[in-house]
Amino acid sequence: MAHPITIVGSGIAGLTIGRVLRRHGIPVQLYNRTKPGTRFGYSIALHQRSYESLLQFLNLDLSQFSAGVGVGGCFNAVESSKTFRVHRARLDELLAQDLDIHEKDVTGASITNDGVVLKFGDGSEVTARRVIVADGALSTVRNALLPHVKPTVHPFVVINGKCKFQDPDSSHLLPHFPSDTAMLEHRSHDVLLQTYINDLDIEKNECSISFTYSRPARKSDPLFTPHRSTSDARRIPQEFYDELRSLRPLPEPFNLIFSEENVKSSNLLSWLMRSVLIPKSDLLQLAKKEVWVLGDAAHATPILGSSGANDAILDAIQLGGRIAGDEEAEVLNFYGNVFESWKTTVEGSEKRLQELHSSGVSAAL
């Protein structure tokens, strides 16, 4: 029987590679602070290559997949579209089916002769011989094993909000959104406004909307706090509302979505635009010890304009297949083959972040 593999992180990368390995008969255990499907009430854009790759190993056809995880406004367009929006929590729930997932917060890690020792928030620990690190851009395991690899925080202000609209507002909003991407953008000088549909509840005549306000950071900017704590992400200065007010009037539906009344009643977060790339030499050294880093933990891109979910799916399917082959050379070749692509993607995403606030480039969240 194949040696079991421990996966840290049950985001898209961790869940996808867990399903791939399980399909190949390799037992997996996943550790994550929360249960999949409980955190992410937003939608993401999946590209054709990504969702077609998922369909193959999930043994689903496109209509089943879109009915299960697609955003309502995208149902009719998915057959002819190269990109469509899916609900992130429902996608996670689909990928998590039949996986052995433990709700435990990994707080530290170290490598010993017996394997990787994972430490948990409850004081317990486990030693795992083979480990996949897929716990995101702020990866606890990466920080413990490779403390010299630090994320870069890019100088941009990004405020994200989530809200819900019911009739008559929802009926007024929905016709403005394209049926495939379900996303709209508006620019005012260096400020970029984006909004997209998270989900539709036809019975309640209700739609869930996300929106972002973003711009380059300015000198002594009260809205840009790169060294803030995670808890401070919910502290939104009054200057943000003052800036919003200065943009008015806005075209519809931005006038309604970015109204001061709606924004103040929304769930707001200040996002930091981070990127990180683990050097190839570090990736290879860890792989030789059967520690494989994947997804945002290995090569994170800023959220705006990112294709992180799509990259995570494709990386997980490729790496999972190599690990299942049980040939060390093949796994090492994976990193050798993809590293330049990862580097190009990270560098390109940083450039794209600049372009989004200076030209007509479109983003896909």
Explain what the structure shows.
The chain has 365 residues and is α/β, with parallel strands linked by helices. Helix content is 35%, strand content 27%. The protein contains 13 helices and 15 strands. It has helices spanning 12-23, 48-58, 62-69, 88-96, 140-145, 169-173, 238-247, 254-257, 260-264, 280-288, 296-299, 308-324, 328-356; strands spanning 5-8, 28-32, 43-47, 83-87, 101-103, 106-112, 115-120, 125-128, 131-133, 152-166, 183-188, 191-201, 206-216, 267-277, 291-293. The protein has a 5-stranded parallel sheet with strand order 5-2-1-9-15. Strand 12 (191-201) and strand 13 form a beta hairpin. The two termini are 41 Å apart. The relative contact order is 0.16.
